[in-house]
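Troubleshooting: if your tokenizer reports a length mismatch, compare your output against this known-good record of 256 residues.
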Amino acid sequence: MKMHIIAIANTEDDDIGVSCLKDQTRNIKTFSYLAEYLGIRSEVIKIDGSAFGKATLENVLKTLRPSSQDIVIFCYSGHGFMIPAQNKKYPNIDLRSQPSQSYLDYYMNMEDIYATIAGKGARMNLVISDCCNNDPTSSNTIGADIAQTRSSGLGWSMDNCRKLFMDPKKKSILMSSADLGEKASCNTTLGGFFSYYFKVAMENQFSQFKANANREDVLEDTRKQTIIEAEATYCGKPQIPANVCKQHPIFKVNGE
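Known-good structure output:
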């Protein structure tokens, strides 16, 4: 068995690059440790810095060859947008490597990425994007830095980890940080609110003191905490109730 970890982040963006790097670093650390804990091999593919771009991602997806027993983790952190005419709920991710490039020529839709990865036949696929899902001209909301919620540090349960990531039945999960028409919130302390609270929710289910661990609680807790954090952030000025951020993560789960 092997865990394939694909972590793509727009780390050189002037506005959100620091937040994206924090997401990428956290995702790699969390899932690499999970693979080690489960006693399986891991392979990390980082797409960032000067390597960030559509061509790089397309090549990674083309050459991805998981076995039927493998786990594939895909995490994107960067800019995202919607195109109303597409009639797709999940965002397009902005894969421009140069500011002069047109976003309409350098993007991929998360539903297409999800379908490509799920079609590779691995036992478990987790496809995540932390980005906006609204007008292409808008940008992620950068909130004030806040104190992090520390992990419990009480240890993980092997049974809980295996239940969530090594189910005998094949599972594919698609998650994104914001619903149609919404921005994604972040700051330099937590990174993307969605990415941060997904990690917290997942590790709560991993805990050896957690009975009846299940992925549905991971998804719902991530959604709930992201909404709460976003509502403490302003998506525009002046800082009045009308400008409070509205961010509702979306997800779907497919399994045999």
